[in-house]
Design a protein that fits this description.
Elements lengths: L1 E3 L2 E3 L10 H5 L3 H7 L4 E11 L3 H8 L5 H4 L8 E11 L2 E8 L15 H4 E7 L3 E5 L4 E10 L2 E11 L7 H30 L13 H16 L1
Antiparallel strand pairs: 1-2, 3-9, 4-5, 5-6, 6-7, 7-8, 8-9
Helix pairs in contact: 3-6
């Protein structure tokens, strides 16, 4: 167990693969930039999703579903099927472009603010995701219960110095997060039902699913190391 970047990190069975220095260092500059040590949990909810945890992770690291799955929530605020990702060791940083991003063509680069025109999703291998928005972050923690069930904890984490008098703002954002991600979880349950039917022996990642393939490679590497 160790404390770094405002989080307590716990590994049940530490070993060479989970040496904290080698495990966190690839993503350390970004985690330091997030500044979680200056934040605290404002609200938290738990949701039981009848899907494998890996399916839930995969649903968050592609953007082609946004306009359909989130048509009545966040879909209109994002560009269609536009995202990018980069690996940092086993961890991933995804950048999801908001509909305001094209305005940057008219602005000098020193006025660009990545948090104003994108959402940044950090997938911290294997089971935590941090969704960084303009003024707070949403923390998604997955607790696998079985091959087909995952307990999900959704938390809204906000800067301590920006909290007084903003309780209603954080509560509203927490509701938006829970509503939006529940739409994803419903899809994950449908995917899980299809997998559990045994109808397909093989599933192939598509052209827009490079991030999913990279995540699957990290899962395979961790299993081989174990």
């Amino acid at each position: 167990m160790t404390e770094r970047f405002g989080w307590i990190w716990v590994v049940p069975r530490p070993g060479e693969y989970y040496d904290f220095e080698s495990f966190l260092d690839p993503i350390a500059p970004d985690l330091s930039w997030v500044g979680a040590e200056h934040m605290q949990v404002m609200q938290s909810d738990e949701i039981l999703c009848r899907a494998n945890w890996k399916t839930i992770v995969e649903g968050g690291i592609e953007a082609y579903h946004f306009k359909v799955a989130h048509a009545d929530t966040i879909g209109p605020h994002f560009l269609d099927n536009l995202s990018t990702y980069q690996m940092f060791g086993p961890h991933m940083r995804s950048v999801l472009a908001r509909s305001s991003l094209p305005r940057l063509r008219e602005l000098p680069q020193d006025e660009w603010d990545i948090r104003a025109d994108t959402n940044i999703l950090y997938s911290l291998f294997p089971i935590d995701q941090l969704l960084l928005t303009e003024d707070h972050l949403a923390w998604v923690h997955l607790a696998p219960l079985s091959a087909g069930e995952t307990l999900i904890r959704l938390s809204t984490v906000a800067p301590r110095d920006g909290m007084p008098g903003r309780e209603a703002h954080w509560a509203r954002n927490h509701r938006i997060t829970c509503t939006t991600l529940t739409e994803d979880f419903v899809i994950a349950e449908g995917v899980q039902a299809g997998i559990s039917s045994g109808a397909n022996d093989v599933l192939t990642f598509g052209r827009y699913e490079g991030a999913l393939h990279s995540f699957a490679q990290q899962v395979a590497a961790a299993l081989n190391a174990a």
